[in-house]
Write a structure and sequence with these properties.
Blueprint lengths: L1 H8 L17 H27 L2 H9 L1 H5 L3 E3 L5 H17 L1 H12 L5 H4 L2 H32 L9 E3 H18 L2 H10 L5 H6 L1 H15 L5 H47 L5 H4 L1
Parallel strand pairs: 1-2
């Protein structure tokens, strides 16, 4: 199935051309199309960054430094250009996150020639659900993981040691939790496409559920930049739920594929029966 998908991507052009007029594209044509998709995605990121630059003070003071101040910690810069770099990073990060739907849209537009004609009309829905899961994961990381981790570390302060956080390391810590959660929440969409390609099945996921839970714990330990078990368990808990949700999604995909096969079989049988209409005696002579 994966090979068939790749072969279909090497045929046809953009989705704006009718199917009967599509021709096989060369490798350079695909590179040119990919280049324009990247340009359009980058343009979306640039526009989002420009829009976020008008609210950079709110983004830095309330969104980035808000969780740190809420637990009584103080940020500090260790270089003369530290504050300038902080504002640049704030605009860049917020622009990348805000433009994610546009980036995903042009990604799927490039993949669209490899989909079946009846699947291309669902590109907008796929982009919507993918963006929804990503933003949901980012929200979980920002509102749940980050405060829990900061509260855990803030509790280890002593009178002789002032716990001041370097801004650059704090940004790295924040990005790892927020973006890591956003990517982890894409598990249902990943399993959906793997099921569409026939790589996995619901029976396979149920059979290796215990093994998958161990892998989830390892992924949570890798994604979270903190060594505490509390943050890792908070990261892995929604992943367990997403895994069970993925089993349900894969099962639905399998049922839809079976219904499609049965419908095709019925159409073939009806076509065969129409071709086997008995002839009269005069026609036989």
């Amino acid at each position: 199935m994966v090979k068939k998908l790749l072969l279909r991507m090497l045929k046809g052009s953009t989705s704006g051309i009718p199917l009967d007029e599509q021709k096989e594209m060369s490798f350079l044509d695909h590179l040119e199309e990919l280049r324009w998709h990247i340009v359009k995605a980058a343009a979306g990121v640039l526009i989002a960054m420009i829009a976020c630059s008008f609210f950079v003070d709110f983004i830095v003071q309330k969104l980035l430094l808000g969780p740190l101040v809420a637990v009584g910690l103080k940020a500090q810069v260790l270089a003369p250009y530290g504050i300038v770099m902080l504002y640049i990073q704030a605009v860049l990060i917020s622009g990348l996150i805000l433009s994610m739907p546009n980036t995903l849209y042009w990604l799927w537009k490039f993949v669209a020639p490899g989909l079946m004609p009846n699947e291309r009309k669902y590109v907008s829905g796929i982009v919507g659900f993918t963006s929804l899961f990503f933003f949901g994961g980012c929200a979980f990381g920002y509102f749940v993981l980050v405060p829990a981790a900061l509260s855990f570390f803030a509790g280890f302060g002593t009178q002789n040691i002032a716990l001041n956080v370097a801004v650059d390391r704090y940004i790295t810590f924040l990005l790892a939790l927020v973006l890591g959660s956003g990517l982890v929440f894409e598990l249902p969409m990943v399993t959906y496409f793997l099921a569409k390609m026939g790589v996995i099945s619901a029976e396979f996921m149920r059979k290796y559920r215990r093994h998958s839970y161990v892998v989830i714990l390892l992924i949570a330990a890798f994604v979270t930049p903190t060594p505490d078990i509390v943050t890792q368990l908070l990261m892995s808990s929604p992943m367990f739920v997403l895994y069970e949700l993925s089993i349900f999604i894969v099962k639905r995909v399998q049922k839809n594929k079976e219904k499609a096969r049965e419908k095709e079989q019925e159409q073939e049988d009806s076509a065969d029966s129409e071709g086997d209409v008995p002839q009269s005696d005069d026609e036989q002579w």
